[in-house]
Please model this.
Amino acid sequence: MNDYQFNQLLSRLELSWEGYRRVRKGVKKRIRKHMQQLDCKTVSAYLAELGKNDKARRECDILMSVSISRFLRDRKFWQTLEKEILPDLIREKETLKVWSAGCACGEEVYSFKIIWNRLEKSGAFLPELKLVATDLNTIYLDRARAGVYHSSSLREVKKEDWSNYFNTNARGSRFSVKPVIKNNIVWKQLSLLADPPGLNFDIIFLRNNLFTYYQDHLKQPAFKKVLDALSPSGVLVIGSHEDLPFTTENLLPVDPHSFVFRKYL
Ligand SMILES: C[S@@+](CC[C@H](N)C(=O)[O-])C[C@H]1O[C@@H](n2cnc3c(N)ncnc32)[C@H](O)[C@@H]1O
Model:
């Protein structure tokens, strides 16, 4: 499959070339295998199949998903979350609602739990945490539930925290999250283009998915729903290299991060 043909596929799926450009090699490989399984000899035949076969189309959507992530990705942000954003958000709250939208294999969610645990250990009085993590891809969700990672996923975690939050196998090649961060997370298959899994979230993570991989006309309605699901003083976190698809007066950046926003009524 050449780039022209890959672009035809992206157009059909309403996905963005810019988002897929750097990861296209691996994605093309998965799609080529899918074409073989469906006995499609050409990309045109594959596109025609996707048009009439809903199951194939759903499989294709899943094969297009990219799971690149790591623990504490954008480490400075997580420090701000721990030291400034969360202490302010949890003040006088009985419950804190958090949604990780497009959670991949769980690295982002467990990062949040690490920060939460650190706050707990510091003696902060914490409200009840309601944490929901959603993704389109059930294979990623199964991996997230299992919570086992290669050391490369942990490279932003301080070495002294590895043993606090992970058990390792005898060879030291695999790290599984400890119950202290594994418990109390609701995992759910859900598309970002569908209705959110609830309302009044205090924090929504919408990082490195909708704004990176989708075409503009899909971003706007999906983002509107996400914004509606954010509580009046909630915090929205997008990817550090992403931009909002439109400016909203009631979202202001949280210093010093241009990709973290606080909602104001
Ligand atoms: C690159 S990962 C980002 C993971 C994490 N948010 C982060 O920033 O580290 C993108 C994730 O978004 C998910 N995704 C893509 N399109 C989706 C959709 N329409 N609905 C739900 N999840 C989607 C993919 O399955 C993948 O797990």
